[in-house]
């Protein structure tokens, strides 16, 4: 099988079938930024998902990322969080040719427009449940994605002042926080819905121990990019009510700056409207620091 990017996955599929058995259908899934994702349907048994770390810079760190996802999914088997179950791991890509993680397929679909009040309440409840999970496996301390190399006012900024204020704030260091288990990439792209029910949370490669509000902030930034800062605030308010945690706007600023590209790269935010909404989100959260 060749992917849309022209990758030959023959060895990876052969490896997967040692767990799933012969396959009746194989389909490349859309939406993955870090990996090639395949939906595998065996002749007998339940469908599975094969993650192949094929894209840089994630491939360079893929052994640690896929191993972390495998370990976290095993931890979550007995937790009240719906996550895929790990089936097999080739973290170094020795057999597959690419670092690989095979896992169960959860029901449901991604819906990037679930920003009504009821959906945001359910989303907040899921995130609070994640934060209550005791970390009984070795999970790393969180890493900031707002690297100092990103402290450059983007050329598309309408006002350089808020960006400079954000960089100055981040140089002061984070506030005290109570460490907890965090997803670290919690957003609507990684939540599955069926009707009004959340049927699962996926993409556990960045799971960490860190500040709960960083998860909230990351979800808020993603919501703001698509739907504006007011919708993001409604999610943050729903989470604060559900979890009883006070906002920590420093982490909102950290997350917004994390969306800037490092020098020499284009980054994720390329649409003019999204860039404007990202800056609007920064202005809004800076007012709360």
Automatic annotation (TrEMBL):
UniProt KW keywords: Kinase, Transferase
Domain of life: Bacteria
Residue ranges of every copy of the Aminoglycoside phosphotransferase domain listed in the record: 26-243
Gene Ontology MF term list: kinase activity
InterPro entries: AGP_Transferase, Aminoglycoside_PTrfase, Kinase-like_dom_sf
Signal peptide range: none
Keyword Kinase: yes
PANTHER family: AMINOGLYCOSIDE PHOSPHOTRANSFERASE-RELATED-RELATED (PTHR21310)
Protein name (Swiss-Prot/TrEMBL): Aminoglycoside phosphotransferase (APT) family kinase protein
Plastid recorded as keyword: no
